UniProtKB/TrEMBL annotation:
It comes from Sanguibacter gelidistatuariae. The lineage of its organism: Bacteria, Bacillati, Actinomycetota, Actinomycetes, Micrococcales. It comes from the Bacteria. The active site is at H103. InterPro entries: Histidine_triad_HIT, HIT-like, HIT-like_sf. Pfam families: HIT. GO terms for molecular function: catalytic activity. This is Histidine triad (HIT) family protein. Gene3D superfamilies: HIT-like. A motif (Histidine triad motif) lies at residues 101-105.
């Protein structure tokens, strides 16, 4: 059964390879690439290949895939930084979500501040 994708979705296009990105890791179920507007020395987006709109939809639809996204995030932080990181899933426009294909922001490589609002 093929995975669900959205032809209008930016991150589905990056998964498909029709929009370029600097990919830093890939698994059969997820990919990770550099954020185009990094907020820290390491700022990587980890994206399941299948299209889910947000973290709650992913958690409900395929909890094992969410666990895979978390595991890949941890691996990337070890490979690209010191293994310490913040993993952020913005959910909804008021939380700052602008791409409606779930993605974890893996942020680190520096001592991080805390000013979510
Ligand atoms: P959100 O605001 O939805 O949580 O995160 C979307 C992220 O995607 C933003 O941090 C933004 O910089 C990043 N982004 C938007 N368009 C592109 C793109 O075309 N390529 C890459 N690599 N990142 C993008
Ligand atoms: Zn998508």
């Amino acid at each position: 059964e093929p995975i669900r994708t959205d032809p209008e979705c930016l991150f589905c296009k990056i998964v498909a390879g029709t929009v370029p990105a600097t990919i830093v890791a890939q698994t059969p179920e997820a990919i990770a690439f550099r954020d185009i507007n990094p907020q820290a020395p390491m700022h990587v987006l980890v994206v399941p290949r299948e299209h889910y709109g947000d973290i709650a939809q992913l958690a409900a639809g395929d909890p094992g895939l969410l666990a895979g996204v978390v595991a890949l995030s941890d691996q990337i932080a070890g490979d690209l930084a010191d293994g310490q990181y913040r993993l952020i899933f913005n959910s909804g426009p008021h939380a700052g979500q602008s791409v409606f294909h779930v993605h974890g922001h893996v942020i680190g490589g520096a001592r991080l501040g805390w000013s979510p609002a």
